[in-house]
């Protein structure tokens, strides 16, 4: 009896085949290609970080009115991008449209209206920055102008999870000329589930329908949505898309302290990248844990006296997620342009040192 060898389908490949290419992708690819070529040509030793930031949406209709979203405002990514620039990196900032951006984040999501930072002596006078805000705004402005004038920062927006994944694949491939000088800092909150295009409604789902067509089911005004898991792309990024020798860093967010380190270790082993940065929802602004290939947990914490206030934070949970109680946390002092200390001012210099050591080790082989 003859047997037929069947090639198992690749969920990642099928995902790209079954979803349309974003209209903005060719333009973004051209911008990234020129950005990388410029830095390879003018600063051959410059490292380039691809920083992903913000949440991804899951549309419920082809002509999207409703969508599933998450809480991410892009704080981690936007803040980290600034500190990568301070460390001498050029940064490709792949961000959720309208989420926080490097430098403007200090004012765009402030509790004060942006106009509160300015004043005018009379109706005909010049508009100036209020005296109490001038020093801080001057520092931020100078950093922004340097990044802009030296072409160190490229901003690329996305909205949906599909747009994000197409962008990530294309950008990673375009970073091939960088080799080990490329660093992937995957801080975006990527949706774990999506609606396949063939099951998606074309028009707005009507609230008075008793049956929601392809997606909805049930009676009355209930809407039941069936979501499929988004294929796991991190292994493909590591093995296929990213330049050989590049450094790949991902994040693991949990709410249960007892699960955080174990989940980070599992992710590292499953996807074969270089570092997982674990953080708890309630303490993420004050502490993170580095879980690397040697499976040692290394905690980085903002010193207690420098911790900024957080409405959603629970300071009593700091230290509760530690698995190796004899680990030595890193409590470094560092500069910042906002009140308190941003933990990214500690994370990014540590990553830069790890990246430098990695490049050095690779060059010796």
Task: Describe how the helices and strands are arranged.
Layout: H1 11-18, H2 25-42, E1 48-53, E2 58-59, E3 67-68, H3 75-86, E4 90-96, H4 105-108, E5 118-120, E6 127-129, H5 131-149, E7 153-158, H6 161-174, E8 182-186, E9 193-194, E10 228-229, H7 234-241, E11 247-254, H8 260-271, E12 275-280, E13 287-292, E14 297-301, H9 344-363
Parallel strand pairs: 1-4, 1-8, 4-7, 8-11, 11-12
Antiparallel strand pairs: 2-3, 5-6, 9-10, 12-13, 13-14
Helix pairs in contact: 2-6, 3-9
Descriptive tags:
365 residues, alpha/beta, two-stranded antiparallel sheet
Helical stretch tally: 9
The largest β sheet comes out as: 8 strands, mixed
Average pLDDT score? 88
User: What does the oligomeric state look like here?
Assistant: single chain
Helix content percent band: 25-40%
Shape: globular
Radius of gyration: 23 Å
Class from helix and strand fractions? alpha/beta
Strand content: 15-25%
What order do the SSEs take from the amino end to the carboxyl end, as H and E? Answer: HHEEEHEHEEHEHEEEHEHEEEH
Read across the widest sheet, the strand sequence of neighbours is: 7-4-1-8-11-12-13-14
Regions with pLDDT < 50 over 5+ consecutive residues? 1-8, 331-338
Spatial separation of the terminal alpha carbons:
52 Å
Number of strands: 14
